[in-house]
C-alpha cells in the first residue's frame, strides 16, 4: 500500500498494464531510432501532485533538462497531463544517432517527436487495456536549460491533485537514455482508475 | 496425461491471465514462479513439460532463463509471453530455443493457436 491507498492487487494490476503499454512504446521508439531498446521493469508510484517538484529537483538539479507536456482525456473521467522529462545530455546522444542538426531548436523538435511517440503509444496501450480511448492535445514544451525543473513542475502541477510517477529507463544498444514520465491526474480520475482496476481484477 | 506446467511472471495478474486463457481440454498441473531464478529452481529439480515465460522480470529475466535451459540441457518446451515485442527480441527468443512468442496481454485465442499448433490440445 502506498500513501494514496492502492491495494497490492491494484498495484500489481496497474504495473502489468503499464508494462504492456511500455512494451508498445518501446517497440515504437526502437523503430523510430532504428535500434534495439533494452526494456526494464518500470517503477510506478502514485503520489500527491504537490510532492512532484521535490521528487525531481535532485535528479535534475545540476542538469540541463527539457520537459514536454501533453494533455489527454478519455471516457469515465480518465484525464490528465503527461509530462516527459529528459536530461539534455541524453538528447545530444540521441540527436546524433538520428542525424538531427546539433542545435537547440532541432534537439527540442526531436524531443517533442520522441515524447509524442512515447506518450501517445504508451497511453493508447493503457487505454486499450482498460477499454477506454483517449484524445490528446498538442505537445507543449515547458522548459529547457535553466536548471529550474522544480519551479516549472510546480507551475504545471499545482492545479492537479495526484500524480502517477512512471520511472522509465531505456537502454539502447550502445547508448543509455533515461527519461521520466509523470502522469498528472485529478482526484476523481484516481477513483475511476481504481474502479477500473477492480473490474479487471474481478474477472480473474 | 497430465502435463506439468510452470507459469513464470513477476505479475500476479499476468499469471492469472495465462491460467484463464487456457482451455478446459488442456490437462495440466500448474506451478508458478515470480522471477527467473525461481523458475530455474523449479526446472532444475522437477520434470516440467511446458513453461509459459515472461521476459521482463526482476532478479533474472526470461532471456537468462532461456540461456540456462539451453546451457544445462533442461528438457522442456517454452512459450514466451511478453510485452517486449521488438522484432529483434522475438528473433532472439526463438534462436534461444523457445517454441513460440505470444504478445501480451494474452487471451484464449492467442494461446489456443499456439497450443493447437504444437499439439498440446
Q: What's the SSE blueprint?
A:
The complex is a heterodimer of chains A (204) and B (121).
Chain A (H helix, E strand, L loop, with lengths): L7 H26 L3 E3 L3 E6 L3 H9 L4 E9 L5 E9 H11 L5 H26 L5 E2 L3 E5 L4 H9 L4 E11 L3 E10 L1 H16 L2
Antiparallel strand pairs in A: 1-7, 2-7, 3-4, 3-5, 3-6, 4-8, 7-8
Helix pairs in contact in A: 1-4, 1-6, 2-5
Chain B lengths: L2 E6 L3 H10 L6 E6 L2 H10 L4 E4 L8 H10 L5 E6 L4 H9 L4 E4 L4 H10 L4
Parallel strand pairs in B: 1-2, 1-3, 3-4, 4-5
Helix pairs in contact in B: 2-3
Explain the overall architecture:
The complex is a heterodimer of chains A (204) and B (121). The two termini of chain A are 21 Å apart. Chain A is built from six helices and eight strands, in the order H-E-E-H-E-E-H-H-E-E-H-E-E-H. In chain A, helix 1 packs across helix 6 (187-202) and helix 2 (52-60) runs antiparallel to helix 5 (149-157). Chain A is of the alpha+beta class and 204 residues long. Chain A has helices at 8-33, 52-60, 88-98, 104-129, 149-157, 187-202, and strands at residues 37-39, 43-48, 65-73, 79-87, 135-136, 140-144, 162-172, 176-185. Chain B has 121 residues and is of the alpha/beta class. In chain B, helix 2 (36-45) runs parallel beside helix 3 (62-71). Classes of the chains: A alpha+beta (204), B alpha/beta (121). The interface between A and B is medium-sized, with 23 and 21 residues.
CATH topology of chain A: Chemotaxis protein chec
Which architecture name of chain B does CATH use?
3-Layer(aba) Sandwich
* Order of strands, widest sheet of chain B: 2-1-3-4-5
Helix share bin of chain B: 40-55%
**Separate helix tally of chain A:** 6
Q: Main sheet of chain B?
A: 5 strands, parallel
Indicate the percent of residues in helices of chain A: 40-55%
What coarse outline of chain B follows from CA principal-axis ratios? globular
Q: Let me know the number of strands of chain B.
A: 5
What percent of residues of chain B are in strands? 15-25%
**First-to-last CA distance of chain A:** 21 Å
The main β sheet of chain A shows up as: 8 strands, antiparallel
Q: Report the count of strand segments of chain A.
A: 8
Order of helices and strands of chain A: HEEHEEHHEEHEEH
Annotated CATH topology of chain B: Rossmann fold
Output the structural class of chain B.
alpha/beta
Amino acid at each position: 500500500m502506498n500513501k494514496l491507498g492502492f491495494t497490492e492487487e491494484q498495484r500489481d494490476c496497474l504495473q502489468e498494464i503499464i508494462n504492456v503499454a511500455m512494451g508498445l512504446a518501446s517497440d515504437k521508439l526502437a523503430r523510430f531510432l532504428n535500434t534495439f531498446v533494452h526494456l526494464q521493469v518500470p517503477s510506478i508510484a502514485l503520489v500527491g501532485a504537490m510532492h512532484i517538484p521535490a521528487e525531481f529537483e535532485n535528479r535534475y538539479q545540476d542538469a540541463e533538462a527539457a520537459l514536454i507536456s501533453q494533455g489527454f482525456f478519455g471516457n469515465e473521467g480518465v484525464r490528465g497531463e503527461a509530462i516527459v522529462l529528459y536530461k539534455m545530455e541524453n538528447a545530444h546522444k540521441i540527436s546524433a544517432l538520428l542525424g538531427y542538426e546539433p542545435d537547440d531548436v532541432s534537439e527540442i523538435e526531436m524531443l517533442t517527436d520522441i515524447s509524442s511517440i512515447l506518450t501517445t503509444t504508451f497511453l493508447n496501450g493503457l487505454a486499450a487495456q482498460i477499454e477506454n480511448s483517449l484524445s490528446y492535445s498538442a505537445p507543449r514544451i515547458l522548459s529547457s536549460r535553466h536548471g529550474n525543473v522544480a519551479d516549472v513542475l510546480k507551475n504545471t502541477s499545482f492545479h492537479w491533485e495526484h500524480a502517477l510517477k512512471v520511472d522509465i529507463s531505456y537502454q539502447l544498444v550502445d547508448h543509455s537514455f533515461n527519461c521520466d514520465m509523470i502522469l498528472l491526474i485529478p482526484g476523481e480520475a484516481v477513483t475511476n482508475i481504481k474502479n477500473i482496476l477492480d473490474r479487471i481484477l474481478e474477472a480473474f | 496425461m497430465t502435463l506439468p506446467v510452470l507459469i513464470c511472471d513477476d505479475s500476479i495478474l499476468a499469471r492469472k491471465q495465462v491460467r484463464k486463457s487456457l482451455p478446459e481440454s488442456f490437462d495440466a498441473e500448474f506451478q508458478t514462479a515470480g522471477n527467473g531464478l525461481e523458475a530455474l529452481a523449479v526446472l532444475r529439480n522437477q520434470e516440467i513439460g511446458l513453461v509459459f515465460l515472461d521476459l521482463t522480470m526482476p532478479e533474472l529475466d526470461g532471456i537468462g532463463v532461456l540461456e540456462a535451459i539451453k546451457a544445462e540441457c533442461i528438457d522442456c518446451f517454452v512459450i514466451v509471453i511478453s510485452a517486449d515485442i521488438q522484432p529483434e527480441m522475438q528473433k532472439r527468443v526463438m534462436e534461444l530455443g523457445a517454441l513460440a512468442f505470444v504478445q501480451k496481454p494474452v487471451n484464449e485465442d492467442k494461446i489456443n493457436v499456439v497450443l493447437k499448433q504444437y499439439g498440446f490440445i
